[in-house]
Amino acid sequence: MGIEQKLAGVDFIATRAEFFINWARKWSLFQYPFVTACCGMEFMSTMCSKFDLARFGAEFPRFTPRQADFLIVVGTVSHKQAPILRRVYQQMCLPKWVIAFGACASSGGFYDNYATVQGIDKVIPVDVFIPGCPPRPEMVFDGFMKLQAIIQAEKLDTHTVENKYRTLP
Amino acid sequence: MSMETIDLLKERFADAVEETHNFRSDHTARVKREAWLPVATFLRNEAGFDMWIDLTAADYQGREEGLPRFEVICHLRRMKDGARIRIKARLPESDPSIDTLKTLWKGADWMERECHEMYGIDFKGHGDQRPLLLYAEFVGFPLRKDYPIGRRQPRIPLLGSEERRFSRPEDETPHGHLPEDKNNG
Amino acid sequence: MNGTSLVNNQENVLETDLLEITLGPSHPAMHGITQMLIKLDGEKIVSCDVEPGYLHRGFEKECEDHRWNQIFPYTDRLNYVSPIINNVAYAMAVEKLCGLEVPARCQHLRVILSEMTRITDHLTCLAAVMMELGAFSAFLYFVKARELYYDLLENVTGARLTYSWLRIGGARWDIPDGFVEQSKKAIPETRRILKETDGLFTKNRIFLDRVVGVGAISQSDAISYGMTGPILRSTGVAYDVRKANPYAAYDQFEFEIPVGRNGDCFDRYMVRMAEIEQSLRILEQALVKIPGGPLSVKDPRFTLPDKQAVYTTIEGTINHFKLIFDDIHPPKGEVYAAAEGGNGELGFYLVSDGGNKPVKCRCRPPCFAPMSAVGKIIEGHMLADIVPIYGSVNMIGGEMDR
Fold it and tell me: By the 8 A CB rule, do C143 and A48 touch?
């Protein structure tokens, strides 16, 4: 990440580098599927042959946060699970993105009670929220393409420790 | 089938069986909590109810005059002919404890742990009443009627605030709520 | 030199310790989230403590705060791979409490849709087990087969996974035209995929070495724990709620209960494969003729009136208004009713005091009992055996933690 920050000041090189780096990142995302609940079934459908996430280059899940660059939180996160989610997020290396998949991950869904975190943005910073209970695979692709648009529009110094961590207590 | 079992129970434990009924053909017997383990032992060893189905508890706060607050309900089944039976016992609020059935059926272990953490019922002789579905830092017994549904107990400091449950009992129509419930929300 | 004394000396000098690992909640083999605290001696597991509850969402507390018909979406998300069966179990319990007689057409349709979701449940379980044992292609084939049923159910209910299709006293939507023909096409396709996967696994030496003799449970243990469903049937006990306490229209169809012998993971795999075949048999018989008649019981206290009556008559409007805002009022009492879920006996214990919300709504989860036993079953096996044992139990987090 050091080279990127240094390049960020030089405009012409920065924009060309941004274009290629972001293009490469958005078409080769390694996902960490943090699957908890029912949305996991639709996640499985999205990954498999009928609706294929492999056409976006993101088919292979990396079940370790050290090797993944995008955390997809699928399903309800309870208060018991929240510290684990935060720890997994903190273990991931930069650059990293987060998708909140489903209504429960976005806002707690209809579980508005003592056990459920009302949205994972209360635990970690989130880039894209995909609503639905569970969302259709087409909606997942829409959310994924929005994430790709976000990645394409990033600057070289977006992923710094200060930017990504400043909101975590 | 189980009707004979209910009759056998009434005969054998005449002073312990408080009430029996057959509502919608579910044979049920409410027994005194001191007789919980003897009745269960009788059902397993002599009446042949070898299959464990369910153990749960219910909170009847403010609903029935003259009866203790908590109730422990156990469902059993006999593999031989498929007969089912339900036994219940009432526990007072001041001392919600009852014998464990772990020694008779292995399935009672986790279900009693769950009842303990959700209602605060102490199962004497269980020996391992750690929280099962909740976490160790959780304070209170959530399934009791006086635990408000919208109370939050986060385990880690959260970003932003989670103060109000979206729909509160006070905002709803009075139907279905007892007059006392307005104070419980 | 005495060989044994040398060994004994070495044992006194070397300090051995058990390795404690956490097969943590966020783990691909944990099917969602359960934590296992394992003590290992080399590769052998000495003790295992299962810690569930990471998906506890407060189902019972939410049920006590919602009206009887509003609970259906919560029941969908219990066993989320076979949601219709949860709906059926809950609807049956409330209908038993109210003393309602559901019309024959609805019972028949409940059987058809339940069997479809039972097929998706078994397909998903087997897909996950085999993927974790290393055979990724079985996962792809079975998920492809599952999509057939998701499409069919979407045509009826409008949703792919969480249907909320049933209501107290009947169902929400009737089947559309063309449903029966489409379903009839899905059955041979599923059989073809089953045959293909069967050829890949059942006599495969690698697969057999991983699952035969692993995780065996005895019959008496299984009954004492309260296990039901494919796990109990794999130990040799032919207990199926559809045959023991027939509900919906199951007594009109002919099907068998596949039973295993040893209670190990291989038997559970075979029982599930055979059950998919039996479900296809029930589907074939049920799709031949669906009885006509109304879909829901014609009782103004329980069922919404026709839209024509709601828009044109004052009684219809008031009836509709009252049912939407005040919902049904079952009589005072308590009831227990069970259906055969994908994992076993899914029971609902309901207590009503005559109000429009339950006093207690307890779901008896079929995978709770096997999970309480997994800690004991795994002891003595190797670390790699956790995957087939845990997978064949088919723990569904929504059902176990509620």
Answer: yes
